[in-house]
Design goal:
Elements: H1 2-30, H2 36-39, E1 45-52, E2 58-64, E3 67-74, E4 77-82, H3 87-92, H4 108-120, H5 124-128
Antiparallel strand pairs: 1-2, 2-3, 3-4
Length: about 130
């Protein structure tokens, strides 16, 4: 009976350590291990933007300290395309104004407004009489 209790205790200990290891591995894969607050300071490295080129390759803008780098990421490796990206030039470009969804309708919206105005506004001549 003493051997079975020791075996049960050791098996439980190994099982708990295994579950802790699996949780740590899952947290590392999910990216929870590299939280900025854990390091106690400002992060020096950031992924600014990623653009998929095809099914296997991506273009990425990586910011390190005050420099930005354009990198091609692929299954065979990484390629540095440009070291000195000018982020100020990209921020100066104004975003395009949102497209008006009613322009595809042509003059329909204007005609509809005119018909609605004529139908729902009281006639001016009937008020005068």
């Amino acid at each position: 009976m003493l051997a079975s209790e020791i075996f049960r205790l050791l098996f439980g200990f190994v099982a708990v350590l295994g579950m802790i290891g699996l949780c740590a591995l899952a947290a590392k894969k999910a990216g929870l291990a590299s939280i900025a607050g854990a390091s106690g300071g400002r992060r020096r490295l950031a992924m600014r933007e990623v653009l998929p080129i095809d099914a296997r390759r991506r273009l990425a803008i990586v910011r390190c300290d005050d420099a930005e780098y354009l990198i091609m990421l692929g299954p065979t490796g990484e390629t540095l395309i440009d070291k000195n990206l000018n982020s100020a030039a990209a921020e100066d470009i104004a975003p395009a104004p949102p497209e008006n969804p009613f322009t595809a309708l042509g003059g329909f919206a204007e005609k509809f407004r005119a018909v609605k105005k004529a139908a729902f506004e009281p006639d001016q001549t009937s008020k005068a009489a």
